[in-house]
Amino acid sequence: MGVTTEMTFIFKRERHARWAAHIAKGILKVALAKQTPLDEELGLSRYVSLMAAHFFCEEELADYDPVAADPRCALAWMERRGTRLVVTRCADVQRSFPLREAALDDEPFPQICLAYATRYPQVPFAAYCRYEQTTSGFVELTRAAWDGDCLRLRRNAGELPFDERAWDTWDMLELRYCDGEYLACDELPSPLRRHYEELLDEARQAGLAGDVAGALYFLDAAEALPGCGELPQAALQRGLAAEHLRRHGVRRVRELWTSEVPQELRDELAASDPVTECPLGGGRFVLRAQDVGFRIVDTDDGSTAGEGCHYFSDEPTRVVHDFLVLSGGRYFLVDWKYNVQSPLEGMW
Fold it and tell me: How far apart are CA 79 and CA 31, in angstroms?
């Protein structure tokens, strides 16, 4: 899978960008050194974060030149453009990362931000990291901003095309400096994200009460919120709430990250039997496993209603609840259409 990553750091003055270049160079050196014998020689792995390794091993790494060993490494693509510091190609060290405190220690982007805020707390800055899977069109945009008191990270992600400026629809994480270390405050969901989660709660309550039509109504409302259409939670919950309803069509088939699939559903998939052909949607559709994926065929006219592709033909295909598929080691969600009248229609 092709991946591109780019980092940008923005300052009010050029001298601050020059200072940032020194910090970024050090953090990138540590990240690249972890892939060489220097890791064991300097004991880089014993440090809890890239920032700590940079601060403690700065002198030892002064003569280390990653570009000489690999002219295409991330450090070769770092340049200062006035008040901006840009690393245009850094997929070799910067990956996708969860927006949680425990996931920040091994990623250069948040570590550069934290190191700069620690070394120069008086200097405000903004920074962006764009991670893109070029084959699937999935994009993860992370924005960081330091104001002298806290480092706030925002996350906006989705499959292209989507509104890359819809920062108010996604979660935030605040890190505040306290007693010599950064501590995470409670995660701060945006108002739209809070509304999304409240609608999911309404749907859960309706489902528990046996009101399937009500559950579908609230789940459709959640997906209709700006920036929330690509989130998988509503579609997963829709499949569970309407498990015993007849499916009238396939809205789409989409691939899920492992972390997006609840653990109990992963366990069910792992315990299920492999299939080569499996009836879906009350018998109207059939899933047919192939060497590098699967197809969902409409038995009425033989057309393909949806499909999923992967690269691992030796991994079997498994299905649970007729909407969640594990094929080639990858998870796929079948999002079904239902012809169910809203319970709220005509009530007002």
Answer: 18
Q: Which residues contact 261 (CB under 8 A, 6 or more apart)?
A: 236, 324, 331
In 3D space, the residue among 139, 232, 181 whose CA is nearest the CA of residue 48 turns out to be 181
Distance CA 125, CA 288 (A): 52
SS3 content of the chain, % helix, strand, coil (to 5): 35, 30, 35
Note the helical H segments in 131-254.
Answer: 191-208, 212-223, 233-241
Q: Which residues of 278-310 are buried (b: 16+ CB within 10 A; e: fewer)?
A: bebbeebbbbbbbeebbbbbbeeeeeebbbbeb
Residue numbers in the chain where pLDDT is lower than 70: 1, 167-169, 178-181, 183, 186-189, 341-348
Distance (Å, whole) CA 239 – CA 337: 10
Omega of the bond prior to 226 within 30 degrees of 0, cis? no
| pLDDT value at residue 31 | 92
pLDDT value of position 200: 92
Collapsing DSSP states into helix, strand and coil, what is residue 21?
helix
Specify the pLDDT at position 331. Answer: 93
Distance CA 90, CA 4 (A): 7
For the entire predicted model, the pTM comes to 0.62
Q: What is the chain's alpha carbon radius of gyration, rounded to the nearest angstrom?
A: 24
Give the pLDDT of residue 38.
85
| pLDDT value at residue 198 | 87
